Amino acid sequence: MARDATLREPAVTGNGAARQEPTAPAIGLADVAVRFRTKKRDVTALHEVSLDVAAGEFVAIVGPSGCGKSTLLKLLAGLIRATSGDVRLQGERVDGPRHDIGYVFQRAALLEWRTARRNILLQAEMRRMPGGQARARTDELIAMTGLTGFEDAYPHELSGGMQQRVALCRALLHRPPVLLMDEPFGALDALTREQMNTELNRIWRETGTTVLLVTHSISEAVYLADRVVVMSPRPGTITEIIDVGLPPERDYTETLGSREFGEAAARIRGLLGAASGGSAGE
Questions:
Q1: Is the pLDDT of residue 74 over 60?
Q2: Sequence-separated (6 or more) residues with CB below 8 Å from residue 245
Q3: How far, in Å, are 65, 166, 215 from residue 172 at the CA level?
Q4: Residue 147, number of CB atoms within 10 A of its CB
Q5: For residue 267, which of 236, 225, 229 has the smallest C-alpha distance?
Q6: How far apart are CA 24 and CA 7, in angstroms?
Q7: Model pTM?
Q8: How far, CA to CA in Å, does 218 sit from each of 27, 29, 122, 146, 282?
Q9: CA nearest 63: which of 261, 275, 253?
Q10: Which long-range contacts (CB under 8 A, 24 or more apart) does 106-114 make?
Q11: Which of 30, 43, 131, 155 sits most deeply, having the most CB atoms within 10 A of its CB?
Q12: Could you say which DSSP state residue 149 is in?
């Protein structure tokens, strides 16, 4: 069941009784549709998508290619506008580019002439963050992501996994309440991807950031997320939302062998297989 709201400290009513007041979800989508026109035809990318993500929750989105997964992230970032429906972050309507989010893409997109540290600090320069604060936060993130000793390395001196760690540090530098991730580990080899999944789970638990992850990997989605949103082929809509039922702290090997993981992965694979008319792989 979707967690539509978190709870504040109990408020007191006139007769002295405690009252729970719901807060706005960190992410809110209500009956969202996105349509656009190509040279040949009208295309509906998303149709009647509704989703609430509570503060601090980790939600993954899976679905066939072209179903609008990345479009959802762009809507929340304010990079495109919905044709209809309501898009909100932290209770505020999204009506333009948002500066209170972190965004991690499939490619690290680092500047080759800047070291790892200076690539992270690029975020601070763009946001005009106080220098001392930005440097202290950079040191904290470098330690958190296991990049200590590689601060002065250039991108070509870093492995793919290390480059993505730098990109993650850059996205988290300003302590965004919401982190959007679009296939961030898709280009990595299987072993590095597993390592990054483990790191991301730990970082999410330590920071408490709300995360919305787009991925094509069923195992990645189930290992990382509290809930997994399964989308239909275009026009993309939500087929089902799966509650994973795993504790926040997850050992990778134990988790993949657990009953909860197996049941959730099998359900998602079945839904995607039914949607595509065949079997669904990773």
A1: yes
A2: 260, 264
A3: 28, 10, 19
A4: 21
A5: 229
A6: 9
A7: 0.86
A8: 22, 23, 33, 26, 6
A9: 275
A10: 106/182, 106/183, 106/184, 106/186, 106/187, 107/187, 108/155, 108/160, 108/163, 108/164, 108/166, 108/167, 109/167, 110/155, 110/163, 110/166, 110/167, 111/155, 112/154, 112/155, 112/156, 113/154, 114/154
A11: 155
A12: T
The tokens for 64 are 């066939």
In angstroms, the Cα distances linking 277 to 9, 35, 179, 266, 267 are: 48, 25, 33, 16, 15
Helices (H), ranges, the chain: 69-77, 116-127, 131-144, 160-172, 190-207, 218-224, 252-256, 259-276
Q: In DSSP terms, which residues pair with 180 in a beta bridge?
A: 103, 212
DSSP 7: B
Calculate the average pLDDT of the chain: 88
Q: Strand 84-89's sheet: what is its strand order?
A: 42-53, 27-37, 84-89, 92-93
Which residue carries 């209170």 as its tokens? 100
Say which amino acid occupies 41.
R
CA 92 to chain centre: 19
Nearest Cα to Cα of residue 214 among 225, 206, 205, 202: 225
Is residue 236 within 8 Å of 71, Cβ to Cβ?
yes
Name every residue whose Cβ is closer than 8 Å to that of residue 157 and which is 6 or more positions away in sequence: 150
3-state secondary structure at position 191: helix
Residue positions counted in the chain? 282
Q: Which residues pair with 42 in a beta bridge?
A: 37
> Which tokens in the block code for residue 65?
């290619």
115 with 95: CB under 8 angstroms?
Answer: no
Show the CA angle centred on residue 205, arms to residues 203 and 210, nearest 5°: 90
d(CA 260, CA 211): 21
